[in-house]
């Protein structure tokens, strides 16, 4: 059997999920030059928000066709509220402070969110089962596709297209571009930069929630610490694509997902590399790729070279 | 300068020490007023939160019931037992810290735990130095009792360490035997999580399976905490294996089996006792149907001797299920309590109580709720019962029990 198509599909599914989370990192960085390390935890709360809607809001046995949109909205609301709250109470007071200060706050916030869910959410200490789509898996030729993967493969392009239209064509989107380019001048031109920053956080939070629902559907569980590894990978994807560039985030995600999948399946087939292949090494190769890209193209795959700020 | 800081350090230490002793003495007088009994603590170390906590809580619960029984029956006259359970989160360094904390408390005369073999390796030395007896209900790595070179020359590294679980040397071989001779599987794909327990189990399974005549179609490793196994699943499917053996815990294997079956590979996953929990079936759902595990001993619920234990556990309102090791934890705690009974008379704890208790545990011999309890010269249980379980209609069902001698 030819495994390549299946592995490409696997990489695509994984990469789409990374890409959705990476957009949150990249938008926030593009506008306020802040690496929001709590974004992984915002992703996690989105997952728990969606689960809460399913378990405690909807009546038992609701069809997934109705439940899924409700969960997306519920998870989205939770993640957006937390992302916006984080901006308002953790980052805004530190705007203008040296860059290290908000970074430390972000790490603190990430730990705090993790511990709050760990201690406060019922049974969150171990995996919580996530509702599953009632159809699939499908087997198309040599490729098998899980129902959870279908969700992410449909959701990711829709989200991306909507975001692209929003940024290019709407007034707010253009204000966003202006703020990203030069916040001070944008403010002089009458743009409410605080509002723009809040919107960037909100969009990032919503996309993270979509990714979290995809994660739950695909792996069957959500867990208090699921944000850590996914957040780290998504951050890597954002940097890989060129942080600050929203298309870069998606492409970086896809490249990273494919790289991990390919590393798992092919590296231990290369003579002399048996010890360095397999699933246990996939993350190592992902980071090797990151280092290589940064060495030869420090602005990332699709990022533009920016002049150093004075 | 140097001297001044020394003075400050000394005074801080002295104040601290004084405060501590003052607190201690107040506690003691308070205790003796409320009851004339000497308080003795049985320590527990297990993952009570995070990964593996479902199983860890079962250990804590098993010990709690043994202690409650001992207090109710006045097993050791003049002594009131208490459980102090510390959470190691399945992290070796936390286990070591907990061990240090338990050793420093004079009231602790025995410890049950930990759950994970990897954690145990970091705790053994601490207990050995303090002569404090430690009985694990679940550690299965052979080197814990038989030394690093256990395959060629056995030698016991720590005389304070005992276990009521039988070792991977038997579990891996037992599984291989069942897979080859009963299931008639011939090509296996072996996956492990690179931990002491998982890698050890996988290695022994592989050895047993190839020795029986089977073929290893492929091998791979995962990291603990990983969730996406789609690439690995494709590899397994491509290898045309008719069985996957997984060395590791339920956290990863439940996702692996789900992705394996969803990925179109309709072959069972076979694992060790780390997968043997209800959580595994809950999470993997229908995809876990037909999966197999081996576990030490016989199923606690099938033993008439454990019926009362199960009744008490369910009535106690303890968190979680007694799981795989609740019964063995009960027996481990009972062994410690019996040993204390031989050493502590009328509530008087001799100064060398800890050392004497270790000797008493070594000599122990009684019928526990999960089978006969006694230890060989390495501290291993002499009860070499093993059982294969399979998921049938969404429940673990015992399919074969037996003894295995490698």
TrEMBL record, chain A:
Pfam families per the UniProt record, alphabetical: BPD_transp_2
Segments crossing the lipid bilayer: 12-35, 42-58, 64-85, 97-118, 138-167, 196-217, 237-259, 279-296
Key word Membrane present: yes
Gene Ontology biological process terms from the UniProt entry: D-alanine transmembrane transport; L-alanine transport; L-isoleucine import across plasma membrane
Signal peptide (residue range): none
Gene Ontology MF terms in the entry: L-isoleucine transmembrane transporter activity; L-leucine transmembrane transporter activity; L-phenylalanine transmembrane transporter activity; L-valine transmembrane transporter activity
Subcellular location: Cell membrane
Main location: membrane
InterPro entries (UniProt xref): ABC_BtuC-like, ABC_transp_permease, BCAA_transport_permease
Any one GO CC term of the record: plasma membrane
Keywords assigned: Amino-acid transport, Cell inner membrane, Cell membrane, Membrane, Transmembrane, Transmembrane helix, Transport
UniProt membrane topology term: Multi-pass membrane protein
Assigned protein family: Belongs to the binding-protein-dependent transport system permease family. LivHM subfamily.
UniProt name for this protein: Branched-chain amino acid ABC transporter permease
Automatic annotation (TrEMBL), chain B:
Higher taxonomy: Bacteria, Bacillati, Actinomycetota, Actinomycetes, Kitasatosporales
Designated name of the protein: Branched-chain amino acid ABC transporter substrate-binding protein
InterPro entries to which the protein is assigned, alphabetical: Leu-bd (IPR028081), Peripla_BP_I (IPR028082)
Domain Leucine-binding protein, first and last residues per copy: 40-394
Gene3D superfamilies tied to this protein: 3.40.50.2300
Alphabetical keyword list: Signal
Pfam (any one): Peripla_BP_6
Superkingdom to which the source organism belongs: Bacteria
Organism annotation: Streptomyces sp. R41
Family matches, as CDD domains: PBP1_ABC_LIVBP-like
Family label: Belongs to the leucine-binding protein family.
